[in-house]
Design brief:
- The chain has 219 residues and is α+β, with helices and mostly antiparallel strands.
- It has a single domain, classed as Hypothetical protein af1432.
- The chain has nine helices and four strands.
- Strands 1-2-3-4 form a four-stranded mixed beta sheet.
- β1 and β2 form a beta hairpin.
- It is globular, with a radius of gyration of 17 Å.
Length: 219
């Protein structure tokens, strides 16, 4: 069976990840490279593992998380759809069964808030993992005076933790935001759609999504 390690060692995938980050650097986007995809892969796997899903489903979620942004190598616009097709064909060449690569394709194709929604346990885990990764480490621009709102909000997030409370059946995104850099309201200006997407993804997994910012529960 194809594992996350196999995917990480695939030179074609590595080239797509590097190409995607190169293009987003030129466009002035936040980091979507190895740091981000590794976090999404790890978090997605942990969510399903703690919820008691089969180990193979957990592994597929990790793979989908690692591959979810390769479509940025084609274009930022519709990157979820192009990435899904790229992933499907690469995994086919690697010998992954059609049922598994279809699940991964669906999850990647539905991770963007503009066009997607949770349609499977894997896609729900990818959404929660992806949308929770707001942090100053994602800011590529080093000139604070030229920050746009996305740079400023991400840079203001000094700590970002996503943890599953299985006893109370909820998943909590706990953020620390430096309000001297930007007010909390600005977080919602750019992340409201992603927050609502996370809420519905949690509902798909039969858990509640909770957002805590600076020790205050907001959702």
């Amino acid at each position: 069976m194809i594992s996350l390690r196999d995917v990480q060692n695939n030179p074609e995938i590595e080239a797509l990840i590097n190409g995607a980050q190169k293009q987003l650097d030129e466009l002035g986007y936040t980091e979507h490279g190895h740091r981000h995809i590794s976090i999404v892969s790890k978090r997605a796997g942990e969510i399903l593992e703690k919820l008691g899903y089969p180990q193979r489903t957990v592994e597929l979620a990790k793979i989908a998380g690692y591959l979810h942004d390769i479509g940025n190598c084609v274009n930022r616009v519709d990157h979820a759809h192009s990435g899904a097709i790229l992933a499907y064909n690469i995994l086919k060449d690697m010998g992954m069964p059609v049922e598994e690569r279809t699940e991964i394709m669906m999850a990647i194709g539905n991770h963007d808030e503009k066009t997607g929604t949770a349609i499977s346990e894997i896609s729900a885990a990818i959404i929660l993992a992806d949308k929770s990764d707001a942090h100053r480490d994602r800011v590529v621009n080093t000139n604070i005076s030229t920050f746009d709102i996305h740079d400023r909000v991400n840079y203001a997030v000094t700590n970002s933790n996503l943890f599953l409370d299985t006893d109370n059946k909820k998943i909590v995104l706990d953020l620390k935001i430096d309000t001297q850099i930007c007010p909390v309201l600005h977080y919602f200006e750019i992340f409201m759609d992603r927050t609502m997407m996370s809420k519905y993804a949690a509902k798909y997994l039969k858990i509640w999504f909770e957002l805590v910012i600076n020790d205050t529960k907001l959702l």
